[in-house]
Write a structure and sequence with these properties.
- The chain is of the alpha/beta class.
- It has four domains: about 70 residues, Winged helix-like DNA-binding domain superfamily/Winged helix DNA-binding domain (Arc Repressor Mutant, subunit A, Orthogonal Bundle); about 190 residues, Rossmann fold (3-Layer(aba) Sandwich), CATH 3.40.50; about 180 residues, 3-Layer(aba) Sandwich (Rossmann fold); about 70 residues, no CATH class.
- About 40% of the residues lie in helices and about 15% in strands.
- The chain has 20 helices and 17 strands.
- A hairpin with a 2-residue loop joins strand 5 and strand 6.
- Helix 5 crosses helix 6, helix 11 packs antiparallel against helix 13 and helix 12 crosses helix 13.
- The termini are far apart.
């Protein structure tokens, strides 16, 4: 036994999580490839090397690293055992940030959330964590929010871990962790059952972890899994789900590098992705339009109706004003009826109706479609472009608007079956279709071919949604061209950046974008075409 290496590993483990007992240290060492150790082995090292180690006077001593040695221990690379060779892993070599994320997760006791913007490869971190767990004899459950991701994870795991027994549960598949070392399950299936067999140790990997802050889906976060990894592009929700359900489950309780809500341990933001060449350089244009005809009057009426109903629901019926997701959850519950006071049911339904109609009006207003028509020369010169809408109807309308010419465009919506969606994505990949218009179905969970232009037809209040959408278009091009992102909004409304819209998102990309330009009200088509660099645009 290499006692010097054992001492260094102990020192690093204790520095990461002060106050551990010997049985906890033994578990941590097992995770580093130390096998066959006993409490006696740990005792002898801890007591014989009193310089770095100190214990308290509890019945079961809790160990810490002496203050003078904490900084050194915290920065010293952790010795790694055979497990980190990943003997059964056959995937690509981890990127630098992925290895760093994996190390950070290890440092805090294999519990935490990795937050990485779309396109940087957070799935690979999960697969490496799964390889680590399998090497230590643990069962691994991967939960995903939809069927598309179920199949994507399954195929990727089979490719990178070819000798590991991989199964699926959900969408008609009935695999289990009794029969497989790694199981991929939809959350809709996982929350109904206890997934980890009795007597087994396990790792739970929650992809798109922000989804599981909903009370129902949080039930899939099974306590029996002592190791836990969450993956997301944006660790946030509009309600209290992160603080209430996610942070308590994924937080390690150690010192580590825990960040937002005590659970984020590592990640990859835009700046890191650009610096490492994972993401493409990008430019952002914001183009404001006005309402036409009676749209302004209609909007003001709906806005006033929603505002009055919201005030009454908060002041008279106790709906929480913030966060907005909690307010909506309360209103939705009240709208379902069963209240002694029928007025609150009618009021909540009135609010939801006004809110929905107002959002649809913003998304589908006439001038946005006119602006989209103005962008057709740009769309004609892109290899592939994505247009993000709010509704299925607006996606179909946008596709028709673009397709009235030489640019092949189609709507990609949830109304299509899986075969149709797969066929459309294949045609998009081959260039047979140049533009896809889609509502939220493309925001996450779909393996979309790289695009070099994204157009936001329906601006979102959600930082998460905007980051997901941008991640679809800022993957590197072979020729090094920057990607472009165009945000359309209605001036003077809740979509207007001048009124505070997109504040968190715009703040995040300011300083890393090659260019971010707000076009004035009098913008003409030639101005936007010149900014984009369309050949033939008049100077």
């Amino acid at each position: 036994m290499d006692r010097d290496r054992l001492a260094r590993d102990l020192e690093r483990l204790i520095a990461a999580r002060p106050g551990q007992e010997k049985h906890q240290l033994l578990s941590g060492l097992n995770g580093l490839g130390w096998t066959g150790l006993t409490s006696t082995d740990i005792n002898s090292v801890l007591y014989e090397r009193g310089r770095p180690f100190v214990k308290d006077d509890s019945t079961l001593p809790r160990w810490s690293v002496r203050a003078e040695g904490q900084a050194t221990a915290a920065t010293r690379p952790l010795e790694t055992g055979p497990v980190w060779r990943f003997d059964r892993y056959r995937g690509p070599k981890p990127r630098a940030w992925q290895q760093e994320a994996l190390d950070a997760w290890l440092d805090v006791g294999r519990r935490g959330v990795v937050e990485a913007v779309t396109g940087t490869g957070k799935t690979a971190v999960g697969i490496l964590a799964a390889a680590d767990a399998v090497a230590r004899g643990r069962r691994v459950l991967v939960i995903v929010p939809g069927v598309d991701l179920l199949d994507q994870w399954y195929e990727k795991l089979r490719s990178d871990l070819p000798s590991v027994r991989i199964g699926r549960f959900g969408d008609g598949r009935e695999g289990s962790l009794h029969d497989h070392e790694v199981l991929v399950s939809t959350v809709q299936s996982a929350y109904l059952y206890a997934m980890l067999p009795a007597g087994c140790a396990g790792l739970l990997i929650a992809d798109e972890v922000h989804h599981y802050g909903a009370e129902k889906y949080s039930q899939a976060l099974e306590e029996a899994f002592d190791e836990r990894l969450g993956l997301t592009a944006t660790y946030e929700r509009s309600d209290n789900g992160v603080a209430e359900f996610l942070a308590p489950y994924f937080s390690s309780g150690g010192s580590g590098r825990a960040g937002r809500h005590g659970a984020v341990v590592a990640g990859c933001d835009y700046e890191r992705g650009l610096a490492d060449g994972i993401l493409a350089r990008f430019r952002v244009a914001l183009l404001g339009v006005g309402f036409s005809g009676g749209e302004q009057e209609q909007y003001e009426e709906l806005d006033s109706m929603a505002g009055r109903a919201r005030s009454s629901l908060i002041n008279s019926y106790g709906c929480p004003p913030e966060p907005f997701g909690e307010f909506m959850r309360c209103v939705t519950a009240l709208s379902e009826g069963g209240n002694e006071d029928g007025r609150v049911t009618r009021l909540s339904r009135r609010y939801l109706s006004a809110f929905t109609k107002r959002r649809a009006l913003l998304a589908d207003c006439t001038r946005k479609l006119e602006a989209l028509r103005m962008l057709k020369p740009i769309l004609a010169q892109t290899e592939r472009a994505l247009v993000f809408t709010e509704t299925i109807e607006s996606a179909e309308r946008a596709a028709r608007t673009i397709g009235q010419g030489s640019v092949p465009a189609l709507a990609y919506t949830s109304q299509l079956d899986r075969h149709e969606r797969g066929s459309i994505l294949a045609d998009f990949r081959r260039g047979k279709i140049r533009v896809l218009a889609a509502p939220r179905v493309l925001d996450e969970g779909v393996d979309v071919p790289e695009a070099d232009l994204g157009v936001i037809l329906a601006a979102s209040h959600s930082r998460r949604q905007m980051i997901q959408r941008m991640g679809r278009v800022i993957r590197p091009n072979a020729d090094g061209r920057p990607a472009n992102f165009i945000i359309l909004y209605v001036r003077g409304t809740s979509e207007d950046p001048g009124e505070g819209a997109h504040g968190a998102f715009l703040e995040e990309i300011t300083g890393v974008a090659d260019d971010m330009k707000v076009f004035p009200e009098e913008t003409k088509a030639r101005d936007l075409l010149k900014w984009y660099g369309v050949r033939g645009a008049r100077q």
